Amino acid sequence: MGSLWGSKNHEEESQVNGDGDDSTLRVSHDDNRPRSSRSRREPTERDRLLGAHPPPHSDGYLDPDDPAVSPYNLWTVRALRFLSVLFLAITFLWWVLLLVSIFVSPPGLHTRGSGFFDFSYTTLTAGILLCSLLFFSAPSMAMRVCQGVIGLFLLVDLIIIVSVPRVRAEEGPAGIASVVWATVITGYCVTTDRVVAWGKREEEERLTGRPETRRTLREWLAVLTATIILVVYIVITVLMTATLVLRSRDASLEMDGQRYFVDGGKYEVHLACIGEPQSANGTRTPTVLLEAAEVPLEFDFEHWAYAAYQNGTISRYCYWDRPGYAWSDNAPSPHSAGMSADNLAEALAVAGEEGPWILVSAGYGSIVSRIFSARHFRDVVGIMMIDPLHEDLLHRIASPGRGFLLWAWGIISPLGIDRISGALFKGRTREDRVYGRDAPGGGKFIKAALQENLVADSLSKNEVTSARTIQSSDTPLVVVSSGVSVRRDSEWSRKQEDLTKLTDNLISWDVVNKAPHHVWETYEGRKIMEKRLGQLVKSKYKAVEEGWEASA
């Protein structure tokens, strides 16, 4: 009996451990010692899930649906899953850091091209890792193909960013690191899915006798869901690649003037001057200095100035783009109107431009011009404001709702849906995207508008309020207001009147009857604006002549 009992025990153990595996503990037929006293082999990575009881099948194999038939039996698969979780944690920390940098830029993380592209790449990376983890035990060829396509497009994005100097400068180290990480993680996910598929097949062959060719309904649903998610990721990646292609093409658009590094060399702003400086009786004639409203100045405001220059109303004018507008880079966050005024002063100094200045501004740009005027009052000989924004109304552009919408629109701006459709179906050009009608849809412009929103009712308001107290009282002043805005908004009308008291030397306050906020869009508005600008220039000439005659 003892011999038969020992033989039975031997047979059972051989079945449990793999149908005669050489590594199976072999018990002699005459060994009647208790199990606990027998010598045992070292456990393998598969022992943990197999249990201590023999399988119910006489052939020694497990049922294909047995939970012990799993790729997780392999240390390799478990290690890859741990690495995936670790990479997801690292990606999440980087994602949080980039999210914070949109609002407050840590040192070294400022991107001169909006900061939304690096955030989008990191979000995509986190999504790919999450998808891989959620469907980790259900590998499929469809998932690997989709991940491979995503990785291919990300590699193209990396090549574009690195090879185009302007895009490379705008994205900076943070943007390049984000797309490199996204590319590497996508390749890692392809490899992981392949290893899990191999492990699944190996365990099925070892424990059931053959690889499983069928899938349960749950597995098919998992594969279908993962494939749909990855197809959406493919569409997102393709759109981002197309947007990068447009950015690369836009980078070749020529501009008047040039860019100058400001704020310690952190970013560049664009400045251009038209005409040659002249002197009258040994004194330089004033240069008109333009400040944009809420859209890039080159779109239409600069055209009016150029017409005034062609008509001989003015002899010279300069214009620039605030950070994030047209050809200028984005500034680190936060960025206020006073910081923009300092950027302008620094760019003028680097370019070697000198006053005296006649400041011509519109809308929000009047806030920047007023701060510039107060800080450089000795060089400012005239102020002309077109439907200017009053400091007491800054809360209108500082509302939390507007800020959230700008942020949300910025997050999806790398997809470039409007820009791509405009280029493909509407004949939109590089000019439209850089400073024209499509410029507000770009990530740089959205970031600039978001920065204005974040500090409009705090830093910017404090700066312009302080500027009003030190504004030179004898500076000639012209205010041209929109008749549409004045009639529609009584508060706007009262604030326009208050701005006419900015100095004690008001030359004229005109309300152009049918003109919108951008007064220069109507013929009557352009005519009045040029007339008043000519009066400012002549008043300066007259002052120069009187001063020269008095000294003589």
Automatic annotation (TrEMBL):
Protein's UniProt keywords contain Acetylation: no
Basic and acidic residues bias (residue ranges): 23-50
Keywords on record: Membrane, Transmembrane, Transmembrane helix
Ranges that cross the membrane: 82-104, 116-136, 148-167, 179-199, 220-246
Record region (Disordered): 1-64
Listed SUPFAM superfamilies: alpha/beta-Hydrolases (SSF53474)
Keyword Membrane carried by entry: yes
Protein name listed in UniProt: Mitochondrial integral membrane protein
